[in-house]
Amino acid sequence: MKPFPRSFYERDPAKVARELLGKVLVHRSPEGTTIGKIVETEAYFGRGDPASRASRKRTKLNELMWWRGGLAFIYMVHAKWMFNVTVEREGTPGAVLIRALEPLDGIELMKSRRGVEDKKLLTSGPGRLTQAMGITYDHHKMDLTRSRVLTVLDDTFTNFKIARSHRIGVSADLKRKLRFFIRGNPFVSK
DNA sequence: TCCAGGATGTTCT
DNA sequence: GAACATCCTGGAC
């Protein structure tokens, strides 16, 4: 297992969102290592995508969407951290939101960070998984293709079917279905 | 300095 | 499925 190269990320957001399913997110923190399989993602574009933070003016908060692919893009919604990966080449905005993981390792650490025992409640939502994995704004701009701390590894989880739907929690969505998830996986958020 | 809003989560019915 | 707790951010003053 090794990290994806930048060329994996510098492509169409929907394509990257779909191909991130079944891949493995690793966070090596001072408290310990937590690992989860990605089971749910959403793609966000730039101009013309009303749900995207890049459809508005470029600011300090959203500018990472214009940067090169493969970087951790983190922001807060409803007092919860959201973990995204930048996609597309520098100058073209795009990001993929990681919405849910299946816990693989470091489960006791996830439980103590979340304050719950139920494994199903650890990482089945974008705010839940950042808390369980210990991901905060400290990881903003981190390069997932190079970092040893936070990275996405290629893996061999291929035995699953992909389903798609409209994105969740957005007030105005595109016609395209841009939420991807592993069909039947119990850790998908809805 | 104030304050509305937001790619949510939890706890109710 | 609906109410509401949560809290940071940037723009409005």
Strand-and-helix sequence, N→C?
Answer: HHEEEEEHHEEE
Q: Kindly state the mean pLDDT as a whole number?
A: 93
Radius of gyration: 15 Å
Question: Per DSSP, what share of the residues sits in E-state strands of 2 or more residues?
Answer: 25-35%
Number of helices: 4
Q: How many DSSP E strands?
A: 8
Largest sheet: 8 strands, antiparallel
Termini separation: 29 Å
Fraction of residues in H or I helices: 10-25%
Query: What structural category arises from helix and sheet content?
Result: alpha+beta
Q: Low-confidence parts lasting 5 or more residues at pLDDT below 50?
A: none
Give a verbal description of the structure:
The longest helix is centred in the N-terminal third of the chain and has 8 residues, at 13-20. Strand 4 (80-86) and strand 5 form a beta hairpin. With 190 residues, this protein is α+β, with helices and mostly antiparallel strands. The chain has helices at residues 6-9, 13-20, 107-114, 126-133; strands spanning 24-29, 32-44, 72-77, 80-86, 95-105, 150-153, 162-165, 179-182. Strands 1, 2, 3, 4, 5, 6, 7 and 8 form an eight-stranded antiparallel β-sheet that branches. It has four helices and eight strands. It binds a DNA duplex (13 and 13 nucleotides) through strand 3, strand 4 and helix 4.
